[in-house]
């Protein structure tokens, strides 16, 4: 017969699947000789059997439990229901994965009216015993029978007579459950075990598993352990401690304890615990033993441990140990320290850092003390990390002016557009009331490394009246707000911020990551400043250089507009000829910074109306300024207006309609590369990227335009340079027909923002609210604009890769959507075989780390399955 | 050795692939003993060899050609270059598929200075001989050497001296080609054969093949045939004739001839030919022989023949026969007549009608005579077939008022919206300056069977000034225009129209089609009127009943708006309760018309802002009317505004946010069905369709809402009816994850409009101009909104079917996009295994016919490959 119950001395930490996390660690501590109260674990397989057997516990398993109980009684010398040496136990669930929502803990199980009486006689401490019994009834009722704890608390306040309280508690139990409180400890035990098994399938647990892709058939284990008491007087205590400081990473015992208390008191927060260091005074011997055990556990687990312990009458008992959660700073310091200490190797050190956390290290953050007293007025989307505090301005010009006066500025808009760029540059942070995680504000802010809270729909922004409002709070121009791009919180008034420190440890870990990873990390950068920042962060090339932002500078927007307003090709070419030198200088600047690193430049992508004003007043002003009739301008604006600009006349469709734009851009790219090669002796091989392709012949058409232009330049100059032409895969049809598209493309770059928009039919500018609702209602696990939807969007990506390689086995594959800097997405990109990811400069370190972790996890998925 | 040249008596009509269409028919006519001038065909394989051999004709093939030439000389008793009996031949290309852009015909080949002289002596007819020689030089120069024909025509006008003209012609030939005009007939022949081979790969031919999926390696044949002369005097003539009238289908010889002329003169139109019936007088014997041959050919080919013939000195020669093109009316009459005559079976009769043509039969069309003198002022998209003539009105209210006054009206708008419905109902036809083939105007007009020209961007429509303008032509309110929904032409002024006749023959063919087809044909209908019309056209159910149009009636739009403006759920439910009875009556009306036919009802789909006004004035008016503050209304309008409404808060997303809307609609559907069942004793099993699903859990969420509502009704009434719940597949992700979606869906209905929009990233409202450019530039072969893009969109559909059936083998599959009425798409739907197509009422007959043809073609694709 299979074995369904293990004593603590029969298991080990590697039996997590069978014994659950808690049980495996209790067994491990027991096996290495630590003072763990004895007990046993009913396995997860018993739980599975329970469900297979129609939610009953097989009699053979019940017998096995009672057999182990007997062993427990023998080891402890105590006995269930015995009046001389009554055995009390704790019953705790413990699944292979930490799983909120399941039944947690029943303490003091084994007590009944008789044992309580006996214990009073034995200890002479009525208050301790009655307190324990009372707790037991309440916990049992709560976790086994689902009776609200509060029902008992109200009763407790009515009298001081401890015995009467017990009577009342049992009465409430009977009222609520229709049954007498069970007096038989065996019955109590089996009820508790069944309750743990049942809790595996309660609604919250099922949902949690569904959301976290945990199989339903794993089951939970049940840990039954002899009770020890931290509440037996001043020579007893209970506490939690870390082997190193989980906030700073400093190598020191860190934690707190509470004298004369049980574990739940520490959590409840009724009494204030003391720092662990003070234990030295109260329990000098115990403390030094604990120090020894902590060091031993850390060495044994080769990671910082988060421990629970109890001291009963000056004797130390270990109740739990597990790997500790930690801040980003601590994670980096601990990983590097432990590698230096020879405790772990570099790969393990790299795996110890959560890439999504390290963003914290690269940005300003709020001072923790100052934050404690702050109350948010609203919450938006955490669109770009960091914290910012400044005076509010509602338009770019005012923001710029304030910046010039030396003010710290937060730019607040309903939604930003390329025309707000100067204001965004001037601002410490940006807040918008509309738009999602990939709205203009979010994307640009991330690119600049500036804090941004987007889509904060609770706030009504009135750009004309220059005010923002949420509930009763009204903020006017010049008033201060503070925004947190990590949480999405918006606070009225000022909160102090702290600057980032890039410690030497951080640099060390990143170097290790670079040694491990095989996938390249590039950056999305449109100007030399961003490119330089990204190279400092370790970028190995540019994966996406957008050319549209370049046209918004004051000295060129006018020529851009003339180009758009041109009534024929000749006029358009004249305007383009004026833009050409600007574009060439843009690219030269970038090439100079990037040196011999690859640079991928995307041809003009946005619809042309983005370069024209939209309101009547702006149109009139611009018309006057340009010396044309407002009517002509208005006609053009109307002509270019689109119902769904996302799906309109943009991307390569512009190059099909106006090949002369693509020609000008190609000329700028190629001549810039040639000149920099000449001037700096750097070999540059630009990648020219044609966006929004959905049809093979569409790409062929634009490719022909680009190639013609290039060969004309080569002919004219008598010189040649290398170049590549490729496309974005951002339209579903491009992925579906990637074999055809690859005929004309030397590289694919996945534009997962647009690909996600079109695959889901979600406009990123409009669906902030919907996506929140969808994640709230568990329709979606993640915002697909943040982490690649591997089921749907991923299927298209994998299809595109397979088809593309069929046509062109060596096709270069990258990603330049925002997902390129999100850890899970980066790992996915590695798994499906991309050559590089590209992300905004501030995400480059995250991507480097995630790419290294992908390699390590891929080598041994079993070892690293618990993210 | 392979055989590369066939004499006419060696081939047959089944050798189309080897001999080309023309050659195969010449051989066939020869083999059944008709008077065909003798000749031979150089095969398509010789053409393939030509390319394989580096564009040279292998000497063995050349020898074979000269061998057959010898045979030709023997049969005709004439000889190349002979001064007594000079042989002249025609050289014509002929590929397996009719292919414009290829080299066509050289006549009189074999002439040179000497033979010309000799022929003058032989015939005594200098003018005939010199005319022939002149034509030969000109044609040879044109088709063999690419010299512009006009170069010669100018010369021809300079003198009347025939001999001098020849001298001049040869001089021009030399100037243009740098060579003397070749005098050796063998040289002439081989040059012509090579020219035909070369023309297979000229740019236009390659493009044509690419666009029509004709393999490049087929090659073209070359037909060499002894010349006969219709220009040898008044006892000679040439002509073309049909075995039946190709316009009316009447069984009568129909055609025209020209006395003393060569074939090209008929085409050139310099002289006016006489009706064929008059041949009886001029050539009584020849005519009766021709009648006999025509009848024989029709029987032989079992189809109406389009024949070319020449009479040389009272002797009849057949030069070509092929199946005739015909009008829709003729096609129907001929198919039915031939079936009655026992010439063809019903399947063949059904295949003889082009489904895309029969639309003509169901709508008004312009009087052909009246149309001849009309000149279009602009051309838009042929969005809904038919012709309309009426006074122009620029808003719905004026259109309605004019209609009430008894005027015929054409509604002209920049773009229509649901608020224009009443105006569209009142109008004969609709013209818009914006929007594509699936814009609101187009879709609604097709649904109503009204003529519509959409996206006519050449016309500037000023709705405020009430005028439309194109070039110099300005049309004001009340002025007449005429629009042609079959061509997209817009004409100023009035053109008479002709009403449709649904003849008995038409009904007969449709019955045959119904007997053959296996795929069901449903209709898209939102009201009893359309449903009734569709049933008359043969619809077997409703595949899409949109519920949104129902809310625009004056008596309910106000409650709809109250629902939208509700500040909480309670208020919303109150407004919904008022809408419930209206909805129920809508559905009852439809159920009553449809009786026991299946009815598929889609829950509310469009974004809510479509129900609110957008301009400041409209907002103020409505606010006053509703008794609310304009500010509140404006705030809501602003809140609901979306950047890309197509990808916004609509479809099932509405039902997720406001389950109470889905509840109300479900209640209306189910109680309506129950009441009609009760009242009429009809068993109704409604299909409830949840739109815009992209995520399995999204569908599960809404499905739960719908099912809860239904079980409440069943509980309350104590009665039950059958129903099905399913979804549209219109979001790429739904297709990609159809296995997951099918868990919750009993049917899939492909919404190919939206699926095409998102797969291509084309907003149908914005891309009319782009798509025109794309088809003009041959980037796209067809507008994918008209005919399903089987490569990309189709791949998603096939994937969805495969995945869906994996989960639910019996899942019901349909299509409700506009493609459901387009013949090629209908055939595609049959091939991929859909159970039904659904289309607007006026397209139902087309779909029925196309569905039947799909079955027939599928049984024997080889036989019916030439569409």
Automatic annotation (TrEMBL), chains A, B:
<feature type="domain" description="PEP-utilising enzyme C-terminal">
    <location>
        <begin position="503"/>
        <end position="854"/>
    </location>
</feature>
<keyword id="KW-0460">Magnesium</keyword>
<dbReference type="InterPro" id="IPR040442">
    <property type="entry name" value="Pyrv_kinase-like_dom_sf"/>
</dbReference>
<dbReference type="InterPro" id="IPR023151">
    <property type="entry name" value="PEP_util_CS"/>
</dbReference>
<dbReference type="InterPro" id="IPR018274">
    <property type="entry name" value="PEP_util_AS"/>
</dbReference>
<keyword id="KW-0067">ATP-binding</keyword>
<dbReference type="InterPro" id="IPR000121">
    <property type="entry name" value="PEP_util_C"/>
</dbReference>
<dbReference type="InterPro" id="IPR013815">
    <property type="entry name" value="ATP_grasp_subdomain_1"/>
</dbReference>
<feature type="domain" description="PEP-utilising enzyme mobile">
    <location>
        <begin position="407"/>
        <end position="488"/>
    </location>
</feature>
<dbReference type="Pfam" id="PF01326">
    <property type="entry name" value="PPDK_N"/>
</dbReference>
<dbReference type="InterPro" id="IPR010121">
    <property type="entry name" value="Pyruvate_phosphate_dikinase"/>
</dbReference>
<dbReference type="InterPro" id="IPR002192">
    <property type="entry name" value="PPDK_AMP/ATP-bd"/>
</dbReference>
<keyword id="KW-0808">Transferase</keyword>
<dbReference type="InterPro" id="IPR036637">
    <property type="entry name" value="Phosphohistidine_dom_sf"/>
</dbReference>
<dbReference type="Pfam" id="PF02896">
    <property type="entry name" value="PEP-utilizers_C"/>
</dbReference>
<dbReference type="InterPro" id="IPR015813">
    <property type="entry name" value="Pyrv/PenolPyrv_kinase-like_dom"/>
</dbReference>
<comment type="similarity">
    <text>Belongs to the PEP-utilizing enzyme family.</text>
</comment>
<keyword id="KW-0418">Kinase</keyword>
<keyword id="KW-0479">Metal-binding</keyword>
<protein>
    <recommendedName>
        <fullName>Pyruvate, phosphate dikinase</fullName>
        <ecNumber>2.7.9.1</ecNumber>
    </recommendedName>
</protein>
<dbReference type="InterPro" id="IPR008279">
    <property type="entry name" value="PEP-util_enz_mobile_dom"/>
</dbReference>
<keyword id="KW-0670">Pyruvate</keyword>
<dbReference type="GO" id="GO:0050242">
    <property type="term" value="F:pyruvate, phosphate dikinase activity"/>
</dbReference>
<dbReference type="Pfam" id="PF00391">
    <property type="entry name" value="PEP-utilizers"/>
</dbReference>
<keyword id="KW-0547">Nucleotide-binding</keyword>
<feature type="domain" description="Pyruvate phosphate dikinase AMP/ATP-binding">
    <location>
        <begin position="58"/>
        <end position="277"/>
    </location>
</feature>
<feature type="domain" description="Pyruvate phosphate dikinase AMP/ATP-binding">
    <location>
        <begin position="289"/>
        <end position="341"/>
    </location>
</feature>
């Amino acid at each position: 017969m299979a074995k369904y119950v293990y004593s603590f001395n029969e298991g080990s930490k590697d039996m997590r699947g069978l014994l659950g996390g808690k049980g495996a660690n209790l067994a491990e501590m027991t096996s290495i000789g630590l003072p763990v109260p004895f007990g046993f674990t009913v396995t997860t397989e018993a739980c599975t059997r329970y469900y297979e057997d129609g939610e009953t516990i097989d009699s053979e398993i019940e017998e096995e439990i009672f057999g182990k109980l007997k062993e427990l009684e023998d080891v402890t010398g105590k006995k269930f229901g015995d009046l001389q040496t009554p055995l009390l136990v704790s019953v705790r669930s413990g699944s292979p994965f930490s799983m909120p929502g399941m039944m947690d803990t029943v303490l003091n199980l084994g007590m009944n009216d008789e044992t309580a009486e006996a214990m009073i006689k034995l200890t002479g401490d009525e208050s301790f015993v009655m307190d324990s019994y009372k707790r037991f009834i309440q916990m049992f009722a709560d976790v086994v029978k689902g009776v609200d704890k509060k029902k008992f608390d109200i009763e407790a306040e009515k009298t001081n007579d401890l015995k009467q309280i017990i009577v009342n508690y049992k009465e409430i139990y009977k009222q609520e459950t229709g049954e007498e409180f069970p007096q038989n400890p065996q019955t109590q035990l089996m009820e508790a075990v069944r309750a743990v098994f049942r809790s595996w399938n309660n609604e919250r647990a099922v949902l949690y598993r569904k959301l976290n892709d945990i199989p339903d058939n794993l089951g939970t284990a049940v840990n039954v352990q002899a009770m020890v008491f931290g509440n037996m007087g001043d020579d007893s205590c209970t506490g939690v401690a870390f082997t190193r400081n989980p906030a700073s990473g400093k190598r020191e015992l860190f934690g707190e304890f509470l004298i004369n208390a049980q574990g739940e008191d520490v959590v409840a927060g009724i009494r204030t615990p003391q720092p662990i260091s003070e234990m030295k005074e109260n329990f000098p011997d115990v403390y030094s033993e604990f120090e020894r055990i902590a060091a031993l556990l850390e060495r044994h687990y080769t990671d910082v441990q988060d421990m629970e312990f109890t001291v009963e009458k000056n004797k130390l008992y270990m109740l739990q140990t597990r790997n500790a959660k930690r801040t980003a700073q601590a994670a980096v310091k601990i990983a590097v320290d432990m590698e230096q200490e020879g405790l772990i190797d570099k790969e393990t050190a790299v795996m110890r850092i959560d890439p999504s956390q390290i963003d914290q290290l690269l940005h300003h953050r709020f001072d923790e003390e100052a934050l404690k007293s702050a109350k948010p007025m609203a919450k938006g989307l955490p669109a770009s990390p960091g914290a910012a505090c400044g005076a509010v301005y509602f338009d770019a010009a005012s923001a710029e002016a304030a910046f010039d006066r030396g003010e710290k500025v937060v730019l607040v808009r309903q939604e930003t557009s390329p025309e707000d760029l100067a204001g965004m540059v001037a601002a410490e942070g940006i807040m918008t009331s509309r738009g999602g995680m990939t709205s203009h504000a979010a994307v640009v802010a991330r690119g600049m490394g500036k804090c941004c809270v987007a889509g904060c729909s609770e706030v009504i922004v009135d750009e004309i009246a220059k005010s923002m409002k949420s509930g009763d709070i009204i903020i006017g121009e010049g008033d201060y707000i503070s925004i947190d791009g990590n949480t999405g919180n918006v606070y009225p008034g000022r909160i102090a911020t702290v600057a980032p420190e890039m410690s030497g440890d951080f640099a060390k870990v990143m170097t290790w990551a670079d040694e491990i990873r095989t996938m390249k990390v590039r950056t999305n950068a449109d100007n030399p400043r961003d490119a330089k920042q990204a190279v400092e962060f370790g970028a190995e090339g540019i994966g996406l250089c957008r050319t549209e932002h370049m046209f918004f500078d004051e000295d060129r927007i006018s020529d851009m507009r003339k180009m758009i307003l041109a009534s024929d090709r000749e006029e358009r070419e004249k305007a383009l000829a004026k833009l050409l030198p600007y574009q060439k200088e843009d690219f030269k600047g970038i090439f100079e910074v990037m040196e011999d690193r690859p640079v991928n430049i995307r041809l003009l992508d946005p619809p042309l109306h983005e370069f024209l004003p939209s309101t009547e007043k702006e149109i009139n002003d611009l018309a006057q300024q340009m010396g044309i009739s407002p009517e002509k301008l208005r006609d053009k604006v109307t002509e270019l207006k689109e119902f769904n600009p996302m799906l309109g006349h943009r991307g390569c469709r512009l190059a099909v309609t106006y090949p002369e734009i693509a020609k000008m851009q190609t000329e700028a790219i190629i001549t810039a590369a040639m000149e920099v090669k000449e001037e700096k002796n750097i070999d540059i091989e630009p990648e020219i990227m044609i966006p929004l392709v959905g049809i093979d012949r569409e790409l062929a058409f634009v490719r022909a335009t680009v190639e013609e232009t290039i060969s004309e330049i080569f002919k004219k100059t008598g010189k040649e340079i290398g170049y590549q032409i490729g496309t974005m895969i951002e339209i579903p049809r491009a992925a579906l027909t990637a074999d055809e598209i690859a005929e004309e493309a030397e590289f694919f770059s996945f534009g997962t923002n647009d690909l996600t928009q079109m695959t889901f039919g979600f406009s990123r500018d409009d669906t902030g609210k919907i996506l929140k609702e969808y994640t709230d209602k568990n329709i979606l696990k993640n915002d697909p604009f943040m982490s690649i939807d591997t089921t749907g969007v991923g299927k298209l990506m994998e299809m595109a890769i397979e088809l593309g390689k069929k046509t062109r086995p060596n096709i270069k594959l990258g990603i330049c959507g925002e997902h390129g800097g999100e850890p899970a997405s980066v790992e996915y990109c590695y798994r499906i075989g991309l050559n590089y990811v590209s992300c905004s400069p501030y995400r480059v370190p995250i991507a480097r780390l995630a790419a290294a972790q992908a390699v390590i996890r891929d080598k041994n998925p079993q070892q690293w399955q618990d993210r």
